[in-house]
Amino acid sequence: MQTAPRTRRTAQNTQYTYSIGCRVHDVKIYPVQSPQGATILLYGHQNGVTIVWRGGKRLKPLKPAVKEKSNGSNSDDAVMIIDSDDDEPAVSASAPFVDKPEFDDATPESTSIAEVIQTLDLSLGCAALRLAVLPMPHSTPEDASWNGADILQTRIVFAVACATGDNFVITLPLTPPSHESKARPELRQNLLAGNVGKGVWGETVCLLGGQNRAGEGIAISLVKPSLGSRSKSSERTSTQTGTRAIVAAHSREASGTLRFWDVPLSVKSSALSRVEPFQTEYLPSPLTSMSFNPTHISQLLAVTPSQAARIYDYSVPSLPLDETSEGPFPSQGSWLLSLYPPFARGAAMATTRKPIVAAKWVAHGHAVLALLADGQWGIWDIDGASPSSSSSGAKLFSKASAALRGSAITTFSTTGHLEGTSPLRNPAMHKSPAAPGSGEFVPMTPHTRRDAIATSIIGGSDKLAAVRGGIDITRHVQSRGIGPGDESAILWLGGADPIVSVVPVVSRFWESQLRRASGGANIWSGSSPARMVRLSDLGAGLLGERCSGAVGIPKSGRTSSGANDSNTPSENDTSASDGLAIEVLLQGETRVVVVQESEDGSTLTSRLFGSRKKPRTELRDTRAILAYPRPQEPGSVKFNLSISQRGALLRPRAPLKGALGGVDEEMDIVPSTENKPLSNPPRTTGLLFANDLNYAADVPDDEEQAENRDVDQEIMDIMEIDRELEEMEAHRERGSKRVFFEEG
Fold first, then answer.
1. 519: β partners
2. Are 418 and 534 in contact (CB under 8 A)?
3. Is the pLDDT of residue 625 over 50?
4. Which bin fits 463, alpha (ψ -120 to 50), beta or left (φ > 0)?
5. Is the entire prediction scored with pTM above 0.85?
């Protein structure tokens, strides 16, 4: 991976492009930081998995090797050392290498982009198609005791689905390897010495057997000690000691197969072990994605695009008297709930539901956020997590309804559409520039390039199945350690010019949408966490490659205000005052792009919707051109757009002295008669003030003035100027005569 990125700045954001050098299949952000404060990135490629430590303290440079001198050396500084028999024996050459990385004590310099500290390539001998990490909140190693698993404080735990059909569970130390560890002589002598499974990096590998075809998706979670107590037999409870992981993977075997493995996690490095699945579920159609519930850890959300999103629980037996299984879990689980999307528009497709592009758990496992193929998003409220619902509302997964089976939900609690997806909802109204036989030419404008994703689905709603996208949920840590933290969501639709939207805080965004639907607060005047932000100009970093994924990276030093706090931003709520609390990592074909929000916040969107740094009373008067008086000024005030005198267009001009920073030249200047009004000045048409625009364009920008500009008022002024131009055009047409020439 290229450690030094290429920087590209746009009007809205700054993009940092890292070239990988090979095809990237999947990218994940590990939820636990390393001990020195680095964020851990994992991406799968054609030869295995690469782990990247980004940010934090730097590793100390590699120490130069000391050259041994021969006994016959004639150098002056040669020293002969005689070892006695009482000295300790020399270390054996076959002793295992113990890595002790050292880091610089100096605090790293605060820069706009984090530095890549170390990388590690784990060779699997095949392509790693899918990666899976634990659905836990992002935390530091000291607080990474999710579900009572202390192994997370020292080790990385993730799952891999390979192109050969093999699935692996790999554990690795959280601390990045030192430069001395990567420069060992045995790794240079044998190219296969660093492969996964030999323990040279302190890793443990567990092979998940029973699958014959390449996996289409994989998910991993942990098991609580209370689970699996189906029998009092000592044989069944003996496997519950220690930390265990539950891995789910689906493939296209038959019409679709879903398997579950119970994997014990061990810190000791050992040879490659093998585990067989304890549950196998045959599906009517293949799945596209799945994810474990972060709260109800035995529940799995499985998405079938053409049908529904369903919830499966592997710990609830399908038959109450199932005693055929040998392990702590039943041989077959239960399907609890089905979540159906709305129907597609049109009489011909009245019985077809919209395809589900992706669905993920939100509200800490109590609701589901879905993205449909036409750009519509919606939230299914499963456990009464809506901000408007009462605490005594019905909860489907509460203790009172633990025997829930086969229920369904079809109505969204709140819904909307991503910005820029209108051609997906009305494909018949969108005409492609390259459509043969259309008889019309549509010019390629920035708007048509931005909606280029719709060119592949022209012809009907049935082709929405070709749209690809996804959802990524970033769970933040509560600042005070009480209750769950905030959640950020990224919704994206792939294509030549992808559509990527970010929800800074899901709970506040959900509440603002409910208030808007009920006619309450206006979201246009809300703060940043209460709205959805679309990222623009993403092609600058992708360099023409198609976007195949988007994940969120929590910014260092950010704190969470909590989902149950008030909606008023507090002093500690940095997500509301400093913009987005995450960085967006875009996955291309051979590169990854880190997108950061602009620091100056000088874009039009941020000025219209973002919070102002100073009150409106402290803003100075704008210097924009005014065509009509403001409401607080009397109506008799007249505004002249031209500062030139009559007939001055034919006379030589000179730059204004002092006002526009020009320099006097030896030219004839007409004496100013600004204070002497003309007697009965006739109405003139034209843009005489255009002569002075060249001088105004050379004036340097005043940063302080730009920061305190009232953009809302300036936009109103521009609208008044457009109205004045239209009246001038109408006046010109009224004073002219139209002559038509007809052939005799």
1. none
2. yes
3. no
4. alpha
5. no
